[in-house]
Design a protein that fits this description.
The chain is built from seven helices and no strands. It is mainly α and 153 residues long. It is a multi-pass membrane protein.
Length: 153
């Protein structure tokens, strides 16, 4: 029986079409920065109404087992909003992304298990979690406040 070795057949397209190498190289940082700005911006926008009503999620967080809700609801509000801004500008990118990842892992659990919505209810949180985990591992790039500070957090 012949086993097909697929790894030899999956050459990156930039290697197959050398003329595309400069385009991909030129867009690499821009695409990564765009993903960080969008991820952080959406998280900040999502957290903004919670900042206006920091105790609004008290019952919800207690329903998930986080007591006292009067502590966790404002903590959630502040974290979503502030961490979103930090990711957007690339300030303390890794710690901000870790904090966002923790929140998003809880939201995946909440939607999938606690609220019984399964994948359909948690798919946005899963996608968002994947993005924040990317930045938790990768950090920021040259187009960030971290880079301007000369530190990779």
């Amino acid at each position: 029986m012949k086993v097909c070795n697929m790894s030899n057949n999956h050459t990156p397209i930039a290697d197959r079409i050398p003329a595309l190498r400069p385009i991909y190289a030129g867009l690499h940082d821009i695409a990564e920065t765009l993903m960080r700005v969008v991820c952080g911006g959406i998280l900040a926008v999502h957290g903004y109404p919670k900042i206006l009503n920091p105790f609004g999620a008290t019952e919800m967080v207690e329903g998930l087992g986080f007591y006292p809700g009067s502590f966790w609801s404002p903590a959630l509000s502040i974290t979503e909003f502030v961490v979103g801004i930090m990711l957007m500008i690339g300030l303390f990118t890794r710690p901000a992304a870790v904090a966002a990842s923790v929140i998003l892992a809880v939201t995946v659990y909440a939607h999938w298990v606690a609220f019984g919505q399964g994948y359909a209810g948690s798919e946005k949180s899963i996608l968002w979690l994947a993005m924040t985990l990317f930045f938790a591992v990768r950090g920021s790039n040259r187009q960030s406040v971290d880079a301007a500070l000369g530190r990779q957090f």
